[in-house]
Write a structure and sequence with these properties.
By secondary structure, this protein is an alpha/beta fold. It has 2 domains: about 5-15 and about 85-219, Rossmann fold; about 20-85, DNA polymerase, domain 1 (Orthogonal Bundle), CATH 1.10.150. Helices cover about 45% and strands about 15% of the residues. It contains 10 helices and 8 strands. The chain has helices at about 20-30, 40-45, 50-55, 65-80, 90-100, 115-125, 145-155, 170-175, 190-195, 205-219; strands at about 5-10, 15, 85, 105-110, 130-135, 160-165, 180-185, 200-205. A 6-stranded parallel β-sheet has the order 5-4-1-6-7-8, sandwiched between helices. Helix 3 (about 50-55) packs across helix 4 (about 65-80).
């Protein structure tokens, strides 16, 4: 079996964290007196770096408040992050199996690096993921391909030796633009309709299907 690079998104793909993220968004919106509909627009941007989300969710006349929104969200989310970051059923076993057979696993997330590492330590995956790419490592976050290019550079793999697995069309677009095989999981943030916008190469509806797909893809 050939060794290849398997890149995962974190939130909504490996860990069930949406409730905590959306709760922190709602608390932030309420605390700062932003329009209530901001929460749903914001939710759909999960996966995009936080600072880049601001121009897409804030009213034009409140864009100057972006730093305050970012800091308020981070403080509120940090209080509940770990309690709301649990592996989806079957994911832990799959990751440990892939790691044991020698596959190289990486995280490519819109979450900041320290927060990613806290979550990985919380769920016992620190040793499983030797490569972690966050907005701290790039100038442009998802869906720009830069994060994937950095992951390839760090590991020495070519695009045709890698697969990206994610739950948002931002993940899929990033992979496609980098020339990497893309796989959409349907248990996360974006609906099938939203995921289809980015035209994923593969689709999986369960962790069992993902295990089968990776077995076939790895050969």
């Amino acid at each position: 079996m050939a060794t290849r690079l398997i890149v995962f998104d974190l939130d909504g793909t490996l860990v069930d964290s949406e409730q905590g993220i959306v709760s922190a968004m709602a608390l932030t919106v309420s605390a700062l007196g932003l329009p209530a509909e901001t929460v749903e627009r914001w939710r759909r941007l999960i996966g995009v770096p936080l600072r880049e989300q601001m121009a897409l969710i804030l009213p034009t006349d409140r864009l100057a408040e972006a730093p305050t929104v970012v800091e308020t969200y981070r403080v509120l989310y940090r209080e509940i992050m770990l309690d709301n970051s649990q592996p989806f059923p079957g994911v832990d076993d799959l990751l440990r199996e892939l790691h044991a057979q020698g596959d190289i696993l990486a995280i490519c997330s819109g979450k900041r690096g320290p927060s990613i590492r806290e979550v990985l330590a919380h769920v016992g995956w620190t040793q499983i993921f030797p490569v972690v790419i966050s907005p701290d490592d790039v100038k442009r976050g998802k869906p720009d391909p830069e994060s994937m290019v950095v992951a390839l550079d760090k590991t020495g793999f070519q695009p045709n030796q890698a697969i990206m697995i994610g739950d948002t069309h931002f993940d899929i677009e990033m992979a496609n633009r980098a020339g990497v095989t893309s796989c959409a999981v349907t248990w996360g943030t974006h609906s099938r309709q939203e995921l289809a916008i980015a035209d994923p190469r593969f689709w999986v509806d369960s962790v069992a299907e993902l295990k089968t797909l990776l077995g076939q893809w790895l050969g």
